[in-house]
From TrEMBL:
Name the record gives this protein: Nucleolar complex protein 3 homolog
Organism lineage string: Eukaryota, Metazoa, Chordata, Craniata, Vertebrata
Biased composition (Basic and acidic residues): 52-78
Positions with biased composition (Acidic residues): 79-93
Organism from which the protein derives: Equus przewalskii
InterPro entries for this protein: ARM-type_fold, CCAAT-binding_factor, Noc3_N, Nucleolar_cplx-assoc_3
């Protein structure tokens, strides 16, 4: 039987040498540690012995009767002499130290506490604490003057009556003298009152103070802008001026500081979000430049946070009508401060959507969009619109939409319509599906290996390969990732918008928010899922038939319906005839005065309903709309007339057979029924566009030009053709171009240059000679007042 093999490997010489070194080091360390511990123990014992000797010396027996003439000074001197006679421990032998140690452990009259009544031979506790011994020694009390006590009413407790006393306060004569001096100084100050300044002097003083403050603010701001990293601490100094206490310049200085800090943060803020450092990052060693940058970022974030908190507090103070204790600023001035604070918040919302605390600014701004003050509400709504228009990715827009949706729901849909009108500025134009993303980012077709071999050399193939690799990496890094993220954010934003719209359509149909909802649905209808189309069209038709809507709201319903049908709704088999009828009926209800806002919606609806759906529109319907639109053009403002005539021109080009309206001979049977609200059955082919003759004599030159153009059959060439600046523009563009909202004639009226005449004609010379004689004769006749007999003239007229 073989011997069992040992599994443990034999260590090499190097390993043994290494382990032996480690062992020697460990032994040396242990030896040193033992020496240190023994030394510590010895020092501890020496300290205890010294303490025991001191205790024995201090516990000398005190005679019970101390003679009166004895002075305490002698006693102290004697103790000091005895301490000098005592040998130091370092000069004593080991045998003497052991003897003293044994003596210290024994109980004798030297170590006995005379104040205790215990017998001498009582067994002492082992290892008695030095502090406890020290506490038992009687102390020599300082000779303090006895304080007088005032006896108060006793308190009764379970244990019995407890007497109550209080020390009588000792009046210090020095304190009295100081108080008297202070009173005298105050009297002297009162005796010399400050001279009151006049109004001019006061204004001059205020102007001087304000100029000093402005210079100080400018100096701090310029220092921060010149070197932000080094002078970041000056931001705190500038922010402290928000608490200006001088009542003369407090409001103005605070406003200036708010605006200055806002502009500073817009300039020095980096283009990335600053995150807090982790514990591992804080502990690691870094270069000086990195440390300086970190300090700058931390200081910037903290000061920016405090600044936003100050602005929020100003707005809250104004909303709550709350005065501060200092009363430096009046309640009236709080409104001006709050407006400046809100303006700064709006600027930061738009300028720094990427930086820290942007969501906090959104939470502050959104409730102010529904504020009672129209100025603040418009300011906040405009800021949100601007943010929506410039937000390309959609991250900031999503945050705002979430807060607005929650706010509208929390207020039970009782908010300003302007809040929902901001949704119209969202930059969402694409349908978030994979097919569209593939169409947008079509993959670039690279050359195959055979094509490269035929057309390129070896070096060119090498360069081409590297170039294609780089292009692939760039496309993966930029295009696909950013597009996917953008589409995801847009989808989420649109879902929240439609949820808000559908809630209002379902629960608050009589809310003033309905026009804004319908306008929003009209804009984003092409992005709604096809599954909701049937239900949405039924709801829109029900709203129109209810009769509770104004003409403008009903026009929005029609516009929304045709936006739905013009996009993905083409696949649905829905007859929109009821919406055509409603628009035809609503045309004569438009406001013909200055508030002709409905005309723009009508122009948009006609473009979708007639021009873009030309294949589904019959000739009878087109003729009826052209006739009614020409009649409408007689009643509205010039810019509306121009837009309507431009639409008629497009319809006459789209439906060529409508030129029969320019002929006065009737076609077919029947009579035109202008009061009938059904465009299919009003027999519009039996009438003519006589309105164009009246419009040809319109006071506006562009309306005259369009009327003459349509009477000639809307030619594209010839003398009656329109100029390119009129023919190439759409009806909506022409409506906006010639708008009279600025209360000016557009185009401006040409000034007539009156020629200077030598002879000025006056008075009667303008009239004919015969007419002058007739006027004179009638003026010279004496007027006689006779009773008027109407019956005589009536009988004669009847004969």
């Amino acid at each position: 039987m073989k011997a069992r093999r040992n599994k443990k490997q034999i260590p090499s010489f190097r390993k043994l040498l290494k382990t032996s070194k480690v062992k020697l080091e460990n032994k040396l360390k242990n030896k040193q540690f033992k020496q240190q511990s023994t030394l510590k123990k010895y020092r501890k014992e020496q300290r205890k012995l010294r303490q025991a000797v001191k205790d024995a010396v201090s516990k000398r027996p005190i005679p019970l009767e101390d003679p009166k003439g004895k002075r305490p000074g002698k006693r102290i001197e004697r103790e000091e002499e005895e301490e000098e006679e005592a040998l130091p421990l370092d000069m004593m032998d080991e045998d003497d130290l052991q003897l003293m140690k044994d003596l210290g452990q024994r109980a004798s009259f030297l170590t006995r506490d005379l104040s205790s009544s215990e017998p001498v031979h009582v067994k002492k506790r082992k290892r008695e604490h030095v502090i406890e011994k020290y506490e038992k020694i009687p102390r020599a009390l300082q000779t303090a003057p006895e304080k007088e006590l005032i006896h108060l009413l006793p308190i009764k407790d379970k244990s019995g009556i407890i007497p109550q006393t209080r020390e009588k306060p000792v009046i210090d004569s020095n304190q009295d003298e100081e108080d008297q001096e202070e009173v005298e100084l105050e009297e002297e100050i009162i005796e010399d009152p400050v001279r009151e300044l006049t109004l001019e002097e006061h204004l001059t003083e205020r102007k001087k103070k304000l100029q000093e403050k402005k210079m100080h603010i400018a100096a701090l701001a310029s220092a921060i802008l010149s070197d932000p990293e080094s002078n970041i601490k000056k931001l705190k100094e500038l922010r402290s001026m928000l608490m200006e206490q001088d009542p003369d310049v407090a409001v103005t200085v605070r406003k200036l500081v708010i605006v200055s800090l806002m502009e500073l943060f817009k300039d020095i803020t980096p283009s990335y979000k600053i995150r807090p450092l982790t514990e591992a990052e804080k502990s690691t060693k870094i270069r000086k430049e990195t440390q300086k940058l970190r300090e700058f970022e931390e200081g910037l974030v903290s000061q920016y946070k405090f600044y936003l908190e100050n602005l929020e507090q100003m707005v809250k103070d104004w909303k709550q009508r709350k005065l501060k204790k200092s009363n430096v600023i009046s309640l009236k001035a709080y409104k001006g401060l709050a407006e400046v604070a809100v303006k700064s918040l709006c600027e930061l919302l738009v300028a720094l959507p990427h930086f820290n605390f942007h969501n906090n600014i959104i939470v502050l701004i959104v409730p102010l969009m529904n504020d009672v003050s129209k100025l603040i509400s418009e300011m906040c709504c405009e800021a949100v619109k601007k943010l929506f228009k410039q937000d390309k990715l959609g991250q900031a827009s999503l945050g705002v939409i979430k807060v607005i949706s929650g706010f509208v729901k929390g207020r039970n849909y009782e908010v300003r319509p302007e809040m929902l009108k901001t949704f119209l500025c969202l930059r969402i134009k694409e349908i978030e599906v994979k097919k569209d993303t593939e169409d947008i980012n079509k993959p670039k077709k690279f050359m195959t290996f055979k094509e490269k071999r035929k057309t390129l050399s070896r070096m060119q193939r090498k360069w081409k390969k590297a170039e294609e690799k780089l292009e692939r990496e760039l496309r993966e890094a930029e295009a696909s990732e950013s597009t996917e993220k953008k589409l995801k954010l847009h989808t989420e934003t649109l879902n929240i918008v439609f949820v808000t719209y559908f809630r209002i359509l379902k629960k608050a149909q009589r809310s003033p928010l309905l026009p804004a909802v319908l306008e929003g649905l009209a804009k984003f209808a092409h992005l709604i899922n096809v599954e909701f189309f049937d239900d949405l069209l039924v709801v829109l038709h029900t709203l129109i038939e209810s009769g509770d809507l104004s003409y403008q709201e009903s026009l929005h319903c029609v516009q929304t319906a045709f936006h739905i049908l013009s996009g993905q709704g083409d696949v649905l088999n829905i007859d929109p005839m009821k919406f055509y009828t409603h628009l035809y009926k609503t045309l004569f209800k438009l406001h013909a005065g200055a508030t002709n806002e409905g005309v723009e919606i009508v122009l948009q609806c006609l473009d979708i309903m007639l021009t873009k759906r030309r294949k589904q529109v019959s000739q009878q319907r087109a003729l009826a709309f052209i006739k009614r639109l020409c009649t409408l053009a007689l009643h509205v403002l010039p810019n509306s007339s121009i837009g309507i005539l431009a639409i008629n021109r497009i319809l006459m080009h789209t439906f060529p057979k409508t030129d029969l309206l320019l002929d006065n001979e009737s076609q077919g049977s029947g009579v035109f029924l202008p009061e009938l609200d059904e465009p299919e059955y009003c027999n519009a082919q039996n009438t003519a566009l006589w309105e164009l003759h009246a419009l040809r004599r319109h006071y506006h030159p562009i309306v005259q030009r369009f009327a003459a153009h349509l009477m000639a059959g809307a030619p594209s060439e010839g003398s009656e053709a329109l100029k390119p600046e009129l023919s190439r523009r759409s009806a909506t563009e022409l409506f906006e171009t010639y708008s009279m909202a600025a209360m000016t004639f557009n185009p401006p009226v040409e000034s007539s240059n009156s020629k200077r005449k030598d002879k000025v004609i006056q008075g009667d010379s303008f009239l004919n000679e015969d007419l002058n004689e007739l006027i004179k004769r009638h003026c010279n006749e004496v007027g006689t007042h006779l009773p008027l007999d109407f019956t005589k003239y009536l009988q004669s007229s009847l004969r």
